[in-house]
Every structure is written in structure tokens, then in C-alpha cells.
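User: Hey, quick favor. My workstation is busy. Could you predict this chain's structure for me?
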Amino acid sequence: MPTLPPDGVVAVVKRDCPTCALVAPVLADLVRAGRVRAVLSQDDPTFPGGVPVLDDADLELSWSLGIETVPTLVRLADGSEVERTEGWSRERWSSLLGVEELAPDLPPHRPGCASLTVDPTWAEELLVRHGAGRMRSRRVALGEQEDELEAVFDRGWSDGLPVVPPTEARVLRMLAGTDRDPAEIVAVVPPDLVGCTVEKVAVNAVLAGCRPEYLPVVLAAVEAACTDEFNIHGLLATTYFSGPLVVVNGPVAPAIGLNAGGNALGQGNRANSTIGRALQLVIRNVGGGRPGHGGVDRATLGNPGKVGWCFAEDEQGSPWEPLSVARGLAPGRSAVTLFAGAGVTPVVDQLSRTPDSLARSFAAVLRSVAHPKLVIAFDALLVVCPEHARVFREAGWERARLMAELDALLTIDGAELARGVGGIDEGVPVDIATGRSLPKFRPGGLLVAHAGGRAGMFSAVIGGWAGGAVGSEPVTRPVRWP
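Assistant: No problem, here it is.
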């Protein structure tokens, strides 16, 4: 393979580029004058004519230089790049080469063409050629007649829906979404307590259909899920409905296209649909947390969100500080909050125009979480829609005011909660309920976020699993972004 000179200017061209053809005579003169030390040609070792050319048909030298556009001039010193310019610009070429009155007969500027290193024909091969050696995951060879989509189902890597086969090239592209070392251990994943690397998260992010820019959010979600506080092992093993719900805050959310508006809790957005799914696939494929016969996931019914559940908080339209800030992170910091969500209960209130009335509506629905006569044990996430949020904004209610009002409204006379009251055997033991009032939620067990479409007076209560030390604590973790 040809080698680059350690010092001087190197030009990279291809014949199949009008701008390269335009500057070819000038480039040949510069080589003869010693201003350009070497010319790399990506597609024709005879171009440009009349001067020695380094044949870069395998694109190794172009890859090593990080060439994305031709023509490109690169100045090297002791083997390291110190300056470059792309395309043709008389002013920039003159400055880089130290030549005045350069090519006065040419137009002052012409854009270049895409380098073959970024051509789809070559890009995937180059990516695998140069990146596969740093990957440690086991390669699985498929039979010649195997359908790759069916093969993934057959090997148990799917959650029941089609997945994207994790080829080397796809995993390497996914890893480009983070600067973290692929071999870094992100978390020890229950129930099998397997150390999960960045690379393994990337494999499952590919399976889920994520884009590379989603990977930092998935990594943060995996870290949060595998903490003792969140207790993903217990969440898997419970017969209750819940699974991990990912709420995203900060600049990463709009940057990667997460939906915080209409249908934020539903389908139709790639980031929302795949980030939570990637987390669940990590738990399944790395940690061994699978449902079904012999599996650890023992949910009696489950809920559709267990395929994968993620949404962003609408911070711009919110009357309150973001959820992540309320939970202790600095404003402007990208973050995920994991909550053990059991499903969505609608809050329909189209008549309340005062915060007092609307808070009472919220409290009435919140009281029904798990069961109207069960208190303290179960957490909840209240998602306030923009039309409801406007009522609080216009009245000047901050988050603390709303939380205080809800706490008061959700402190319930034990006489209503005792077992047997109302002809319902379920409830609080009589000796505990008698003569006292009890809070519906433990301290910190009620979260509030803002999201949803601009039209429709429909908020939502997302019930949680058992809260705190007996179950799952919501966990907030920063996202390494950008």
C-alpha cells in the first residue's frame, strides 16, 4: 500500500468529479513546482495526468485522512494534519499553499463532490473493515437459506415484533452515536446479573430500530434501570402490570426528535417508540429478563407499554420547571427519569377554569391508582396536558403549590379506607385506618410532568408499582450529551 509523506500538502481527487477535473491542470503544475507533495486518486491512477499519483483504489489513505469531499488539500506536519480545505476556492488554496495569483483563469469557487469513502457502495465495507476489530460481541452465522428476520425470532432476540438484524456495520454506525468506549461496562443487568457493555447496548438499540443519536439516551436509561433504587429485577418478577417508562428532559429531547406533544404517550414517533424498546431488549437479551413459561417476567396481565415506553416532557410550554430539575438536576441538563409505569388512566375535565377545581379532578382520579382504598404503597405520574397547564399558569400556581394542594386533597379519612367499608373487603387494616387520616402517596411517590397536544383537555394518570424500598423508586440520571 502506498504511504503518505509525513510533511507537506497532499491532494485527494477522483476523476469522476467535475471540480477535480477543473483543477487537474493547476494541481499538476503545483506538483511539478513542489507545492503539493502527493496526489491520491480514488478511482483512476492516471488522473491527473503528467504527474506521479498514489493509487488509492482501496480508499485506505482517504479513510485514514477522514476525507469526505474531493478535491481536498491536507497539510501534514510530522505525520499529523495541521490544515485542510475542501472543494476549489482560489482564496483558500492560495492561503494553504502560499501561492499568489493562483489559477486566475478559473472561477473563484466551485464546490467539491462526495468522496468515495462516503459513497454507499463503499461506506459500509470501510466501516466494517476498520471498525469490526474493536467489537467483542459474538458473531452468529446464518445458514444460506435462513431468512434473517425469522432467524432473529427463532433465536429469541425479539420482543414479539420484527427487529432490525444487528449486522456489524449497523452496530458500528450505532456506536458512532457516543464517544464512550464500546468495552465500557454500562451496568450489571438483572436478573442474570450480566455485565453489559456499551457495545451490547448498541446491539440492542439496533434491534429496536434506534438511530445512532438516540444511543446516549438508551445508555442513560440502562444505567438508571439497573440501579438498586429502580429495582428492575423486582419489576420483572412482580405479577403487577408495570414496566419501565422513560421520561426525557433537556436539549437532547428536541435534538433527536422526541415527541412531547400530540400523542406523546402513543405511537408514530421513531425516537419515542424505539428508545424504551431498546431498554427492554437489553433487559431481555443481556439480563435474561423474559416473560413466558420459565421466564422471570411474571406479570399477570402486563400492559402494552412494556414493549417500550418513552416520551419527552414539553419544557417550553410548561408552567413549571422540568421534572429533572424538580428531581435535583441542573436546568438545561439532559436527563432521563425512569418510572415503573402500569398504564394510562385518562383525566377528563373540560369545564374547570380554576386551579382549585382542576386540582380536585386530578386528585379524584389519582385516588383510584391501584385501588381507591389502598394508600401509600403505589406511586403515580401525573401528565398534565397544555390546556390544563394553562389554567395553573394563568393562576400563578407553581409546581410546589400544585403538589401541596394535591397532598392535602389526597390525605384521606381512614374511615373511608378500612377493609369492609362500602361492602369492599379490600382496603387498609381496620386497626391502622381507625381514627387517623392517611396519605394516598408516600413522600416523593407522586411525580408531575407536562406533555401533550395543544388541543384537548385530557391529562393522564400513569399508575406505578409499589413505591420505595418495597418496590421501585423513580430514578433520574443525566444523559451524556452532546
